[in-house]
Design goal:
Layout: E1 3-6, H1 10-18, E2 25-26, H2 41-59, E3 64-74, E4 77-78, H3 85-95, E5 101-109
Parallel strand pairs: 1-2, 1-3
Antiparallel strand pairs: 3-4, 3-5
Length: 114
Amino acid sequence: MRLVLASASPRRLDILNMIGAPPDAVIGADLDESEQKGEGVREYVTRLAAEKAAAVAARAPGALILAADTAVAVGRRILPKAETEDQARACLDLMSGRAHRVWTGVALAVPGSP
């Protein structure tokens, strides 16, 4: 069975290669990663991982799809994925001197499973 990594993250590909499980293909999922109202960080990363797996499964029928999403939270606030240096600096300033948590949701889409 083919293994497809549903991620554009070079780090996720590196991890699979390091453990001796290189994917047969890498297909990024182009999704709206906006937080839903009232959604906690655990629900957020779990939902996004599942949505990524489902989106890629539709494009790679019969393959085992591995998807993940990671978010950083300070308290209950989910930090956005920085797209610019200024955004990255703002996130680092917010985390400075404060505890933060890194959450990762993982989803596996198995052919023939609901």
